[in-house]
Fold:
Amino acid sequence: MTRRRTWWKTALGVFFTALMLFPVYWMFNVSLTKTGDMRADPPHWFPWDPTFEGYANVFDQQLANLGTSLVIGLGCVLLTLVISAPAGYALAKLLPRGGGGIAFLLLVAQMIPSVVMAMGFYAIYVRLGWLNTVWGLIVADSTIAVPFGVLLFTAFMSGIPQELMHAAKVDGASTWRTFQSVVLPVSRNSVLTVSLFAFLWAWSDFIFASTLNRNGDMIPITLGIYNYIGNNTTQWNSIMATAAVASVPAAILLIVAQRYVAGGVTAGAIKD
Amino acid sequence: MAFVAPLIVYLLLFYAYPLYRNVELSLHDYTPRAFVQGDPEFVGFDNFADVISSSAFGLALRNTAVFTLVSITVQYAIGLALAVFFRNNFRLSGVLRAMFLVPWLLPLIVSASTWSWMMNSENGIINSVLGAFGIGQINWLTSPEWALASVTIANIWLGIPFNLVILYSGLQNIPDDLYEAAALDGANAWQQFWRVTFPLLRPVSAVTLLLGLIYTLKVVDVIWVMTTGGPGNASTTLSIWSYREAFGTGQPEFSPAAAIGNLLIVIALVFGFVYLYLRRREDRA
Structure:
């Protein structure tokens, strides 16, 4: 293949990517546009004369919501790991027979529409008094990540050589001890992938937040944006600034952990 | 056994119990008061009958079908074209492919609100660009003719990364020598795609489309933020209908909402079992 031909492909690739990412660019552009210029015709294609008023409003009004989302995201990661890592180990190594049924249930669980889960949780939380609480939302959000986590851990851990665990057993380690000091360290990449997705899903959740935490004092950032849209449709720079800030975790993920992201998508869909 | 016990308890408490409550909601007549006091009247399948005979049902079913089928078909076509394009390793191809993941990683509410503003009738960038080509103002989100198309466009954009990633990894499993053999036989790129790539990718394609279908049936966020299912019921799908009955108005109607939700589960599971069946067959082969 000649050099000139590859160059041409790169140019086309850049063009496609730019087209695809235009909405993201537009979000940044609008977040920096002055309120007075928002309705300009033709619109301002570049933020030549930027305003940071939108971002100032984010720090004024949305900082607490960002904190809430962070707490919910981290809580969800913790809960997901605690439930799914040992279960994945058991399904992969300890009960290779009975595991099939549980794996099947988990696949089915992933197909249940979240609006249905939201209603079920609402009905339960009303009685328990868990509506508008952070932990209520952590539990609900974790239902998105737990089936994925168990399946991913099971897939990875069944690949760990049996000899490794035998060696630990010979040394007199209990099953728990083997899990802790042999299996978990070897599965570091899976732990990372599951944590990343659990965090991102909890951070991005809107359905559970808008149903289970509608009147809470501590609302996550997604709900912050939603309420913002409802309250002042004139300040689109502030809305888009909030959206841009809410996208930061996704950006970090992509830069720091790109290969885990692509790996996670395919693992969830194709491999067992 | 102690290792799976937490998972089993978790599944019972946070999957089985909410689902059970949902079925229970749909078989009783829950008024907001009965909801708190817990003394609803048992009505059997009345809620289901009401929902199905309601005038909104036909439209919601049609919208769900259009939204889902158009979304997954176009997502798949674009995703496949991009996967084939990125298969030729060229300078920067890895970086550019990674950038394509961005729409998928953003919180849905971020994407949905960005699209709302881009599709704004008077000040949206899309109408402004179309205007430059002499196309008059289109009321993307507020006219009954365009609302469903608008949310479908935004949803297609959201689904491209998923299709690209899965199809690209499927392409990696097609051995290079097949292409070399085809090239020796004088097949051009177009013929290579239809004779080699497409047939060999069929199992992966089936999985991608079915998973896409199951995900798309569930979509609430995008449509709710952009149009709330309106104007009227123009962009109301079954998921949106259920969400609106339960949470979207001042007066929650949990029982019909749960009935719609349960119908949705049945539809999702039918396709879900087709997916599981295909996968099992694949594993055996």
Q: What stands out?
A: The first strand of chain B starts at residue 28 and ends at 29. Chain B touches chain A through 91 residues (CB under 8 Å). Chain B has a mean pLDDT of 89. Residues 45-284 of chain B form a domain with the MetI-like fold fold (CATH 1.10.3720.10).
